[in-house]
Amino acid sequence: MNAPFPRQGNNNRLAGLASTLLALTFFALTFLALTFASAQGLCLHFWRAAPPSSWHIEHLREMTRIVLKFGGTSMGDLDRIDRAARLTLAERRPGTSLAVVVSAMAGETNRLVALARGAAGEGLIGAAFDDEYDVIAAAGEQVSAGLLALALRRHGARARSWLGWQAPVRTDSAHSKARITDIDGSALIQAIEGGEIAVIAGFQGVDPEGRVSTLGRGGSDTSAVAIAAAIGAARCDIYTDVDGVYTTDPRIVPKARRIARISYEEMLEMASLGAKVLQTRSVEMAMNWGVPVRVLSSFVEPGHDQPGTLVCSEDQIVEKHVVSAVAYSRDEARVTILGLKDEPGRAARVFGLLAEANINVDMIVQSQSRQPGTANLLFTVAENDADKAVAALQPRQAELEFDAIDVRRDVAKVSVIGVGMRSHAGVAYAMFKALAAKGINIEAISTSEIKTSVLVDSQYTELAVRALHNAYGLENG
Ligand code: ADP
Ligand code: ASP
Ligand code: MG
After folding, report:
1. How distant, in Å, are the alpha carbons of 24, 121, 263, 353, 457 from that of 19?
2. CATH of 326-476, one of 3.20.20.140, 3.30.2130.10, 3.90.1170.40, 3.30.70.120
């Protein structure tokens, strides 16, 4: 029959108590699970600048996790992919689990980008182009991940491919130059600790809308370091077509010397000043998360013991040079505003407009022009921002009061880098003297604590790099 109210009331109270207990248990379990997950480095949020203190817990684990990355040339054809597979297998030993990040086969991304541009025509730029560009450009890494997984299987290993969205590598929505926001490493860890070799497509991720994103050219380096951080890897080995980081691009100076150890700070400057051996963001991430990175050649047979270059913190380097390396970049444009009215506030207005248009300015030089009361304002921007800079300034000619804007793309930035510059005088003097001896004119200069850069006519790029490499005795160590 009908149950009496009090009983029902009692039931309700009991049910209330039970659900409170359940909720408390749920929260406690969730808290424990999250604490455990973060201690294991399972889910990293890359907007956090530094690792949590619990990150270096290698000693607590039985398995050492290692990330290997193979670049485009290293994946250039089936023979090279086979060698990449054998190099990977050579790292397999008891107590070690492996994740491999791959780039598209050499030339493939360029081919895909050209196809995308061809399909879009001239008119489609920016947001109307970039999301589909990502879908197309990311395809190269999908193919090479599948190929390497098959090559590994052929050698009897258990391997499978992982695309960016499957890992998942989460990014923001800045298509074509997305930033990694976080990686949940738990599925990857489970797979590799279960004995599988995870082959991850580099360069790609998934944005908050679930769409494919790419990390900017050379972005597989960043994928590799980010995955190493997310799975708490002991190190990240970047296999490429050179056997380490050199004192300058060995293609330009054959006498360049391999650097045994380089600090994160110097490598960061080198990468951002044009040394494309590592993508700038990968170095930034390695530095923030304390991931030791080694740069090695993939053009050796497995078992060949190669020293490579270790990118590590400054305190792990005994031998410190005043100048460690010379870098160059041809991806520069020089913009000069001629006859700009010379009065307080003009420069602020010009650079305000450039900042609003999201354009990064590097070097700046202001000089008097021939006309009294006016100045010439010279600055450099990335070459592909030059048109945007003109578009931001030209319509304001009357308001800013200038005569004309001049743009030159045949310029190059040549830089010398070294942590020793902090405590040594005369580095810039030696640089200017060496360039003057070769008759190379300096158009602009910029400095920071550990680098000095000059802008020169691009036809003198190689000459300037060689002259500076020689002037600082870099080939002698
Ligand atoms: P991957 O396809 O493996 O990612 P990249 O072409 O992106 O390789 O980078 C390797 C290239 O970087 C080398 O072939 C070399 O020409 C160039 N490079 C530029 N500066 C340096 C440097 N200082 N040390 C080593 N390589 C450099
Ligand atoms: N395949 C991409 C590129 O060519 C990413 C990479 O190689 O790192 O830029
Ligand atoms: Mg690269």
Report:
1. 8, 61, 55, 59, 75
2. 3.30.2130.10
pTM comes to 0.85
Q: Which residue from 103, 227, 285 has its CB within 8 A of the most atoms of ligand 2, so it is best to mutate?
A: 103
Q: Where exactly are the structural domains of the chain?
A: 53-318, 326-476
Give me 206's structure tokens.
């998934």
3-state helix, strand, coil in the chain (%, to 5): 40, 25, 35
* Joined tokens for residue 391: 């578009």
CATH superfamily of 53-318: Acetylglutamate kinase-like (3.40.1160.10)
Ligand with minimal distance to 110 CA = 2
Q: Which atom of ligand 2 is nearest to the CA of 103?
A: 7
Question: Ligand 2 centre and the CA of 362: distance in Å?
Answer: 25
List, for residues 59-98, the tens digit of each pLDDT value.
345 689 999 999 999 999 999 999 999 999 999 999 999 9
Phi-psi domain of 93 (left: phi exceeds 0; alpha: psi -120 through 50; beta: other): beta
| Pocket-forming residues, ligand 2, beta carbon under 6 Å | 71-72, 103-104, 109, 140, 202-203, 217-221
pLDDT tens for 310-334 read 999 988 887 778 899 999 999 999 9
Residue 401 is classified by DSSP as: T
